[in-house]
Amino acid sequence: MLAHPGLAARVAAASILCDIVQGGHTLDERFLSDAAPSRLAGLDPRDRGLARSIVTVALRRLGTIRLALSQLVEKGLPRNCGMLEWNLIAAAAQILFLDTPDHAAVDLAVRATRLEPKNAGFANLVNGVLRNLIRRRDEFLSQSDPLDDDIPHWLAARWRRIYGEDAAHAIASAFGDEPTLDLTVKADAAAWAERLGGRLLPTGSIRLESHAPIPELPGYEEGEWWVQDTAAALPARILDAKPGHRVADLCAAPGGKTAQLAAAGARVTALDKSAERLKALSANLARLKLEAAISVGDAASFKAEPFEAILVDAPCSATGTARRSPDVLWTKKPGDIAALAAIQTKILDRAFSLLKPGGVLVYCVCSLEPEEGEAQIAALLRRNPDAVRDPIDPAAYGLPAEAANAEGELRLLPNLLPHEDSRQRGLDGFFIARLGRLR
Ligand SMILES: C[S@@+](CC[C@H](N)C(=O)[O-])C[C@H]1O[C@@H](n2cnc3c(N)ncnc32)[C@H](O)[C@@H]1O
Prior knowledge:
There is one protein chain. Helices cover about 45% and strands about 15% of the residues. By secondary structure, the chain is of the alpha/beta class. It starts with 6 loop residues before the first helix and ends with a strand.
């Protein structure tokens, strides 16, 4: 029955949405070829791509979709309704936000509903609800507020408190955009930008215009560049490791920053707690023809001779990455922030103890939460009289003055780097601080 064109992609999308929002799985993990259980078995690359588009936009606009459906399903859905709700959400995502023809979105949702024996009787309801959604589409879209509707309430309240009403809205709007890809090149960024038909950003990354499959782009096979959000490329630039320097990358996998440090000629020790993720790091370095000493271990208890430079890209809530990974908004819970902050403190303490006097340490997180950023650095400075901030000049990295706070730390909000084309603007939310060691 799944043989009907496009049906398998819709069924997969609905199941994966449920896995993420109810089961806490991540978007990337659900689309790995060895994901278990696999929702993608038998799907060709086109259908996999379609399933991913549906899931991604449904997660990005989940609140708006649920609000619209709640107004259309007046009596609410039955309890324990299996995949019924997720089929409706996947179909609504197509109707409201994708180019799918309306009749296909409705027909395939009805067919998907009939596949589940206990829900087969709701096929007419699905048909009626989705037809009403099509009729009232403009009304629902014009009423949608990115902060109030598409950001979980606990995060929206946090960002309002921390950044204020306007900035919180700008953050939420940026998370509604679908970005193109950024690349980091080993060298000759301007020439590669031209060759790849991309734009050289003031931050030094190339922002692609097209969406060709990555391995088919010039320079991929030769290992001339790698995919890395432009914000994620800044910490290694700011560390500015010199050729021959002994540098530690303490939370290294999958290795975007290790590659930058190795490409700069540093002798890099790449440590990560996850052996699995280090396999990806090894494979990435092999393609790029770059080298690092790879080590599996806990950065909070890592032992080594002191380093001249250290990069700490700590595990974090990743709330800054919701443009590319909207699942973070729905899989993170309020308690995660304090738990991650405790780990970050331990890693940062250990990292500072491994820094040579006169050395430089860059600490970063792709989180918007101050407990994981500003507060970590302030507390480290209180605990260590030998630690000093080394202020970062945003202009030196192509960033506007407002990217830095009064302490000279970068607080990158995802709505930075404006552009009239929504796919071309923004960057991952990051916090980046640079420290020195006096003695
Ligand atoms: C933000 S990711 C690093 C991304 C990486 N720096 C890059 O640019 O590709 C954080 C990493 O920290 C690792 N990690 C988590 N806890 C750790 C610990 N206690 N010690 C070392 N690594 C840890 C995770 O496995 C994960 O790979």
